[in-house]
Automatic annotation (TrEMBL):
GO terms for molecular function: monooxygenase activity. The lineage of its organism: Bacteria, Bacillati, Actinomycetota, Actinomycetes, Mycobacteriales. Pfam families: Condensation, FAD_binding_3. Gene3D superfamilies: Chloramphenicol acetyltransferase-like domain, FAD/NAD(P)-binding domain, Nonribosomal peptide synthetase, condensation domain. Residues 6-342 form the FAD-binding domain. InterPro entries: CAT-like_dom_sf, Condensation_dom, FAD-bd, FAD/NAD-bd_sf. Its cofactor is FAD. This is FAD-dependent monooxygenase. Keywords: FAD, Flavoprotein, Monooxygenase, Oxidoreductase. Residues 418-540 form the Condensation domain.
Length: 819
């Protein structure tokens, strides 16, 4: 199946219960553990704003209908002076139309009850006070004070501002004082100033008051007063003091306090915590107030928790690994939740100021500022970000990067191939049916390319043909490699007819199994995509597919890069960093012979490291604080230097193809081209330890990743990509002379590939990348199914077979020699 089998949620508040509902809706098992002895909502009331309503709509229409029945749709929103004189009224109807969803004022208990009902038969364990968690390679275990233990594939800490999970992840620390106290209450109340659906804020000097209709003859009121942190945390006043504090305020404010029982008033200090840059690790993450407690100014605390829960379920639903899914969830939420936290604190300073001059300035600004400005600013927190990311329609134009891949392929085939070994009987018809099902789910597997007669203006168009499956039977165990080397990297696609994908099933002559090869045109898929298709086809064929959501048609990746990427400033700085290799006169792998593009031929050699040697290599990488990518890159540099006879210290350059799916709102299970090529350098000498070179490479690459240079590299193609194959001569010359593809590595940090599906055992998952006219040597590496697979792709005649053999052998020798 896709996604975790069971998730453990700590905390049965609004965030925890919404997570339970969303996870169930995604088909993921969930259990909730609540520290309290009973299931009840803390606090008084809140506003479920438009962003949270949109989030809840992804779970079906029922919750929104029930909240509207239980609460009150916000129909008016006014800001007043303490005496009730109006400062401003916002056009709620116009804002609701703009946002496409209402805001609903509701008692917390009503929201809690609606979520509990929607959670159905989800197990909820009470009086379960967690003491710690233990994150293991296969599951996470939670231990409770009474001796109970819970286990799951992932743990969600939704246990509030004093979260046990957060404390173990990030250390214990007191919340940050907000500098004021809040009084809260819900009561039956009728008054001429409180109409149906009304919300009114009264702003004074260091004090405020709010009055909200929550339906069924009830109101929610709150008051605040700026106080030192210690007094706010331990307010000892009562109703009499509140009446005295608000004695000169509007009649409805005084009446509201007067009609509230003494013990119905809840006094709480305003508190938050500074935003975290990382929430969790491994199989553990945070949600709601455990992750981002905030001051009440934006009224987004519960709404942000609801957003978190829906985003969490969406990320886990299609995750190939729970930890991978949790990191995707965090990346989608950290920046937005920090906006809530910082925005609430900044607004609170304005709301709670005790400076009379600032109060006068604030009130004047609120009275005179353009309405459109207020609506635009309110729309930022109240607009729910799309869970699925941007979509497009076919036909759509190829982006500059896609166009370059398509053009390069016309000059010499440019393909990526995934391989997985299936141990057991493989029925071709089942595999064909699985290919058809997976093709249905991915628009990128159902396209062809149409262009003008002169080869310009290419666009993706629908292709009706199914992915073809070719069968081969062979006695040689490495026949899969010969098929890739001899056919899959060499045979062009009919791009005008499509599809731009094909499959090969290499049967073992003795019937022991088969190798599945998935080949993608590089304009529609990268190495991660090819492995994803291979895995999904095998899951479907084995009857273990689960319900993969069908992906939408996407715009090109460059069309939805994060803000700040691709602007003139970013491109200029990235280009300067790219030129560092030239400034340092870095050595490059030199071609033996350059040939016309039509004479170039992508080839591949395969090497692997497994068993004890792999375990030692991984341990040594951990010991030196570098990843496998850096170790293999350092070994590849050493191989190139030794092959060239380098005897003195020299700077070497190497290109890295880097996956950037983490920066985009796309599922890990989608097919597309989501990688960019950048170069980095390291000092090499024959006596330099591999780990020293690897450490330098890791640092240089880490800096470029942080600067998002791999994204800027694709944006640069807008300026440099040729318009057609006929005009590609200068681009090919540039790639030959200065391109980072002279010696490059793609290492996929894919968390896993299944080693068992149904009756099948799976092994040898890996991928191969051709080079076409993009460079000379492109190595790929993966650690999957218990082996490090290194596939050295090279282009003849720029690199001869004998020379490639030496490079491949020297790369492995360098790695093993460093152990």
């Amino acid at each position: 199946m896709v996604g975790p089998a069971k998730v453990v949620v700590l905390g049965a508040g609004i965030g925890g219960l919404t997570a339970a509902v969303a996870l169930r809706h995604a088909g993921i098992g969930v259990e909730v553990y609540e520290a309290g002895p009973e299931l009840r909502a803390q606090g008084s009331a809140l506003s479920v704003q438009s962003n949270a309503v949109h989030a809840l709509r992804t779970l079906g229409p029922e919750l929104e209908r029930e909240l509207l029945e239980r609460g009150a749709r916000v129909e008016s929103f006014r800001f007043c002076r303490p005496d009730g004189k109006p400062l401003r009224e916002l056009p709620v109807g116009k804002q609701e139309e703009r946002l496409g969803a209402p805001s609903i004022a509701i008692h917390r208990a009503d929201l809690h009850a609606a979520l509990r009902a929607a959670a159905g038969d989800t197990p909820i364990h009470l009086d379960a006070r967690a003491t710690r968690f233990v994150d293991g390679p296969d599951h996470v275990r939670v231990e409770f004070a009474d001796g109970r233990v819970a286990e799951g594939d992932a743990l969600i800490g939704a246990d509030g501002i004093h979260s046990v999970v957060r404390a173990q992840l990030h250390g214990r620390a007191d919340p940050r004082p907000g500098g004021f106290v809040c009084w809260l209450a819900c009561i039956p109340f009728e008054h001429a100033a409180v109409g149906p659906g009304s919300s009114t804020h009264y702003w004074g000097t260091g004090m405020r008051f709010g009055l909200h209709d929550i339906g069924h003859g009830r109101v929610y009121w709150w008051g605040t007063k700026t106080l030192p942190a210690a007094e706010a945390a331990d307010w000892k006043g009562g109703k009499a003091e509140l009446l005295e504090l608000y004695a000169d305020w509007a009649p409805e404010v005084r009446a509201c306090i007067e009609q509230t029982d003494e013990d119905a008033v809840l006094a709480v200090p305003a508190q938050d915590r500074p935003p975290l840059t990382a929430w969790g690790r491994g199989r553990v993450t945070l949600l709601g107030d455990a992750a981002h407690p905030m001051l009440p100014a934006l009224a987004q605390g519960a709404n942000a928790a609801i957003e978190d829960a829906v985003a969490l379920a969406s990320a886990l639903r299609s995750a190939v690994d729970p930890a991978h899914g949790l990191r995707r969830y965090e990346r989608s939420r950290i920046e937005r939740s920090a906006m809530f936290v910082d925005g609430s604190r900044s607004l609170s300073m304005i709301e709670q100021t005790t400076d009379a001059k600032l109060v006068a300035l604030r009130n004047t600004y609120f009275r005179l500022a353009p309405t459109e400005f207020f609506l635009r600013e309110l729309s930022k927190p109240m607009s729910f970000p799309s869970l699925t990311g941007p979509v497009a329609e076919l036909p759509r134009a190829l982006t500059p990067a896609e166009r370059w891949h398509w053009i390069a392929d016309q000059l010499a085939p440019l393909h990526v191939v995934a391989r997985a070994r299936v141990h057991g009987t493989v029925e071709p018809e089942r595999l064909r049916a699985a290919l058809a099902e997976v093709q249905r789910r991915h628009p990128a597997l159902r396209v062809a390319v149409r262009a003008e007669p002169d080869g310009t203006e290419p666009e993706f168009v629908p292709a009706e043909r199914e992915i073809p499956l070719r069968e081969v039977t062979a006695a040689e165990p490495e026949r899969w490699l010969a098929e890739i080397d001899g056919t899959e990297l060499a045979e062009p696609f009919d791009t005008a007819a499509g599809p731009l994908a094909r499959a090969v099933l290499v049967h073992a002559a003795d019937g022991s199994g088969a190798d599945l090869l998935i080949t993608l045109h590089h304009a529609v898929g990268d190495g991660e995509s090819a492995l994803t298709v291979a895995e999904q086809v095998l899951r479907v064929a084995a009857g273990e597919a689960g319900e993969y959501p069908a992906a939408p048609v996407r715009p090109g990746a460059e069309e939805f890069f994060p803000d700040g990427v691709g602007g003139a400033r970013h491109l200029a700085s990235s280009v300067l960093r790219d030129q560092q290799a030239r400034f340092k006169k870095a050595k490059r792998l030199r071609p033996t012979e350059l040939a016309e593009p039509a004479q170039r031929r992508s080839r591949v050699l395969h090497r692997r490291i497994d068993g004890d040697r792999l375990e030692v290599l991984l341990a040594r990488c951990a010991q030196h604080g570098v990843g496998v990518r850096a170790a293999v890159a350092a070994a590849l540099i050493g191989a190139a230097a030794r092959e060239a006879g380098v005897e003195e210290p020299a700077t070497y350059a190497i290109g890295s193809l880097l996956n950037f799916r983490e920066h985009l709102p796309v599922s890990d299970a989608e097919v597309g081209v989501y990688q960019g090529l950048i170069s980095s350098t390291a000092e090499y000498a024959p006596w330099t330890p591999l780990w020293q070179v690897a450490t330098e490479l890791a640092g240089a690459l880490g800096t470029r990743l942080a600067d998002r240079d791999h994204l800027a590299a694709l944006e640069l193609l807008r300026l440099t990509s040729p318009k057609s194959a006929a005009k590609a001569g200068s681009a090919v010359t540039m790639m030959d002379k200065n391109g980072p593809g002279h010696l490059c590595l793609t290492y996929l940090e894919r968390p896993a590939f299944p080693d068992k599906l149904g009756a099948w055992r799976i092994s040898g998952a890996q991928f191969v990348a051709g080079m076409s006219v993009c460079g000379f040597v492109s190595a790929t590496a993966t650690v999957l199914n218990g082996e490090l697979a290194i596939n050295l792709g090279y282009v003849e005649p720029a690199v001869s077979a004998e020379r490639a053999e030496r490079l491949a052998d020297e790369t492995v020798r360098g790695l093993l020699g460093a152990l």
